[in-house]
Amino acid sequence: MTQPVFVYRLLSADAWERARQEGRFLGAEHDLRDGFIHFSTAAQVAETAARHYAGQASLILLWVRTAALGAALRFEPSRGGALFPHLYAELPVTAVARAEPLPLAAGGTHRFPPDLE
Questions:
Q1: For residue 79, what is the domain's CATH number?
Q2: Where are the beta strands (DSSP E) in 1-117?
Q3: Interatomic CA distance for residues 95 and 32, integer angstroms
Q4: Apex 9 CA angle, 68 and 57, nearest 5
Q5: Model confidence at 1, in pLDDT bands (50, 70, 90)?
Q6: Is 115 helix (H, G, I), strand (E, B) or coil?
Q7: Which of 26, 48, 76, 108 is 20 to 30 Å from 61 by CA-CA measure?
Q8: Using an 8 Å Cβ cutoff, are 8 and 42 in contact?
């Protein structure tokens, strides 16, 4: 598998603001429970939003440079056997190339930017 340029993370605006202030994101409750920070690829992130963040406003979508994460980023089987990116370290804010609000559409689904890579 060729590693993508970016992996994606959804988090609340409050969590992103805390991470920016601290210079790092340690993970949400489910990340801490699982022992790694969950990410999605561009092909996976919409389904992740629908399954785990449906109807949730005030979400931020992070574009995270895979090259900045090194060997701590692993692609491992998860939902339906698909390979998902998992980070076995804290996420340094410097690895985030872009952070944007993820608005809700009228039906309660999230509207993703057209330029996911």
A1: 3.20.170.20
A2: 6-12, 24-25, 37-38, 59-65, 73-77, 83-87, 91-92, 96-102
A3: 20
A4: 150
A5: low
A6: coil
A7: 76
A8: yes
Number of domains in the chain: 1
What is the amino acid identity at position 104? L
- Beta-carbon count within 10 A of 13 CB: 14
- pLDDT of res. 43: 93
- Residue 114 structure tokens: 């057209």
Task: Output phi, psi for 36, to 5 deg.
Answer: -160, 160
Q: Is the dihedral of CA 50, 58, 103, 78 positive or negative?
A: negative
- Confirm whether 112 is domain-assigned: no
pLDDT in tens, 54-111: 989 999 999 999 999 999 999 999 868 889 999 999 999 999 999 999 999 888 889 9
Tokens 């603001």 appear where? 17
Q: What is the mean pLDDT of residues 26-34?
A: 95
pLDDT of amino acid 108: 83
Distance, in Å, from the CA atom of 30 to the CA atom of 18, rounded to the nearest integer, reads 17
- Domain interval for residue 45: 6-102
